[in-house]
Design a protein that fits this description.
This protein has about 110 residues and is mostly helical. The chain contains three helices and no strands. The model has no long low-confidence stretch (mean pLDDT about 80).
């Protein structure tokens, strides 16, 4: 395992951040987060699996010899996707609340007396 904060704290933090971001994005794409569009869910899943996969590769499969790429600018995309997912969920809840407020009350049906 390549995570060692005593010798390479920057690399170790980067790898953990990659995997945590990937997991967060996959959770945002799961059915647990309702009221999200299918396109947003697919995008969250693909990018999340990519981040987690690269972090997993650097942590467990990479031999430590050679080069690796650090994509700090790439963390802008997950932040935007997470923000967009939360924003879409809030908008959907707001629309549902407005529909409930506008809907006429359901009249109560009285049972005939026999």
């Amino acid at each position: 395992m390549n995570i060692d904060f005593s010798t390479q704290p920057g690399f170790s933090a980067y790898v953990l951040l990659l995997m945590a971001t990937g997991i967060a994005m996959v959770v945002m794409a799961s059915p647990a987060v309702r009221r999200s569009t299918m396109v947003l869910r697919v995008l969250n899943t693909v990018v999340g699996l990519g981040f987690f996969g690269y972090g997993f590769y650097l942590t467990f499969l990479w031999s430590g010899v050679g080069t690796y790429f650090v994509f700090f600018k790439a963390f802008i995309l997950p932040a935007l996707l997470i923000f967009r997912t939360i924003q879409a969920a809030r908008a959907s809840r707001r629309q549902a609340a407005q529909r409930a407020a506008v809907a006429p009350p359901v009249p109560e049906v009285e049972a005939p007396l026999h």
